[in-house]
Amino acid sequence: MNKPILLSTPHIGDRELEFVKEAFETNWIAPVGPHVDAFEQEFCQLTGASHAVAVSSGTAALHLALRLVGVEPGDEVFCSTLTFIASANPITYLGAKPVFIDSDRTSWNMNPELLAEALKHRAKKGKLPKAVVLVHLYGQSADIDPILKACNQYNIPLIEDAAEALGATYQGRYLGTFGHIGIYSFNGNKIITTSGGGMLVCDDLELVNRANFLATQARDRAPHYQHSEIGYNYRLSNILAGIGRGQLCVLSERVAARRRNFEIYYHALKNLPGIEFMPEANYGRATRWLTCLTIDPEAFGANREQVRLALIEQQIESRPVWKPLHLQPIFAECECFGGAVAEDLFAYGLCLPSGSNLKREDLERVIVQIKAVHYKTQSVFTVTEKVYLTT
Ligand SMILES: *Cc1c(COP(=O)(O)O)cnc(C)c1O
């Protein structure tokens, strides 16, 4: 029996246990402590962010970010449609409504022209959104300059959802540091993990202090427990921050390993008819969190689902590209500007196993199976193709 190959699993380095042990030995088993402070500091040094707040998840970080920029019930927030549900859920936590923006084909990320159009439309109606949530999908930078320009024109804060993009850059600078606020995730399947966790970064110290305040039940400065606002219990534990410090040490290796996965898949599969890989926009360097490709069923001979099911038979996990949020039952009533590009990418797109701990032979197994699906559908079986399947 073949061992399972999963999409993206945690990959622990050499130092995490050392930091965790230190937390135990000093009894810092709490949602605050020296590892939390150090993790935030080291995160800033690495990304170039001014201030960071470690929290319990990427979703929590986004919830805080939206609260910090003043999102309230009845507001609208613009959001990329091609993304994981967590990019939009926190909008609804605050009683606001997401309005979705389609992707462009070159980056798979928010189309800047559509955003500008949508903002213009809302400006005319006299109801601008309170924020724009910009996702850097699968670790690839969106085209930030025109997006920032559009937001600045109407004075709308940009929140970067860099959950999949820690370590990726736009024009040489780390993603998450361009917007008003940036957020990251350390969930088990992300580039680096604390098992569960997240980070919020921001240049504005006042907002950062407020994030810390809201993340610790919004406790007023008083010896007794007094509260004038609703807060949350969102701080990261000192133990998990210890894991995070260890993971930060190996971040660049993890990104390199995921980019190497992409290169191996790309060179092995790029010449198959009907296969196209997610492009890398020339303004940035992606993490290649997941290697994604699209399959044109007519040219390839099988569709995305057939390939996915054939891989499952071999104990290989792959996933369709995110189902666009404007197609989600829960957001059926929400407006979307455009939508056809994201719908196409969902219909034809597949994410391949992409963990930084995959071995070359794991990748080879995936490659051989994808080739097998294609060649099985070809009526004329040439000798060289047969040889290919067995090597
Ligand atoms: C994972 C993810 C999140 C949420 O992060 P959690 O830490 O799992 O809460 C948000 N946005 C995107 C794009 C993600 O991939």
Helix-strand blueprint:
Blueprint: H1 16-25, H2 34-47, E1 51-55, H3 58-68, E2 76-80, H4 89-93, E3 97-101, H5 112-125, E4 131-135, H6 144-153, E5 158-161, E6 169-170, E7 173-174, E8 181-185, E9 198-202, H7 205-215, H8 238-249, H9 251-269, E10 275-277, E11 284-285, E12 291-295, H10 297-300, H11 304-313, E13 319-320, E14 336-337, H12 340-348, E15 349-352, H13 360-376, H14 383-390
Parallel strand pairs: 2-3, 2-4, 3-14, 4-5, 5-8
Antiparallel strand pairs: 1-9, 6-7, 6-11, 8-9, 10-12, 12-15, 13-15
Helix pairs in contact: 1-8, 2-8, 5-6, 9-13, 11-13, 13-14
Can you tell me about this structure?
The two termini are 19 Å apart. α1 runs antiparallel to α8, α2 packs parallel to α8 and α9 runs parallel beside α13. Strands 1-9-8-5-4-2-3-14 form an eight-stranded mixed β-sheet, with helices on both faces. The protein is globular and about 80 Å long. The chain has 14 helices and 15 strands. α6 links the parallel β4 and β5. Helix content is 39%, strand content 14%. The protein is of the alpha/beta class and 391 residues long. It has two domains: 236 residues, Type I PLP-dependent aspartate aminotransferase-like (Major domain) (Aspartate Aminotransferase, domain 2, 3-Layer(aba) Sandwich); 138 residues, Aspartate Aminotransferase, domain 1, CATH 3.90.1150.10. The site of pyridoxal-5'-phosphate (PLP) has 14 residues, from α3.
